[in-house]
Design a protein that fits this description.
- The protein is mostly helical.
- The chain contains 6 helices and 2 strands.
- Helix 2 runs antiparallel to helix 3, helix 2 packs antiparallel against helix 5 and helix 5 runs antiparallel to helix 6.
- Pfam families: Ferritin.
- Belongs to the bacterioferritin family.
- This is Bacterioferritin.
């Protein structure tokens, strides 16, 4: 009969895990975190700026579209604005979990954003601007996922979920162009 170390459970050193968990200063970030925290926070702050600009663009489009026949487009713009705000909230929360500071500074928002703001008056131009912005967001998230790899599974899962929603938004905008 061989002796089993009571600290090893299912191949894990629970005593070491418990001891490392006593460092409370890092909150949700444990000793086993493999990501480059500063780089991930910077990437997430860029995405946060992008989402905030998208909220503002969709809100502007929602409030400026008029005409009875544009009701469905107006509703789509509002729905997307609300969903983009949700993405911004997720990103800000993750930045805080990583012990970073979410950057909501309006003075530099558009220069930090991957997507552009749009103030066109034409409905078709609004839809086109939103489709372009969604495509920018999709590619930005794809590149972020590539950079993060498997080093931060929580951030990775969040970004995958947001990217899937951006793809849905792009499909919606493409349909509105038809």
């Amino acid at each position: 009969m061989h002796e089993v170390n009571s600290n090893l459970r299912n191949g894990m050193d629970t005593a070491a895990i418990r001891e490392a968990a006593r460092n409370l200063d890092d909150g949700a970030v444990t000793a086993g975190y493999q990501g480059n925290r500063e780089e991930v926070i910077a990437l997430l702050n860029g995405a946060l700026a992008t989402e905030l600009v998208c909220v503002l663009r969709y809100k502007r489009h929602y409030y400026t579209v008029s005409g009875a026949h544009n009701g469905p487009i107006k509703a789509e713009f509002l729905e997307h604005a609300i969903e983009e705000q949700g993405h911004a909230d997720q990103l800000a929360e993750r930045i805080v979990q990583l012990n970073g500071k979410p950057d909501f500074n309006p003075a530099s928002l558009t220069e930090r954003s991957h997507a552009e703001y749009d103030d066109t008056e034409d409905v078709a131009a609004m839809v086109k601007a939103n489709l372009i912005a969604e495509r920018v967001a999709i590619e930005s998230y794809r590149q972020m996922l590539e950079r993060i790899g498997d080093s931060d599974p929580t951030t990775r899962q969040m970004l995958i979920g947001i990217m899937a929603k951006e793809e849905e938004h792009a499909d919606d905008m493409k349909d509105l162009l038809s």
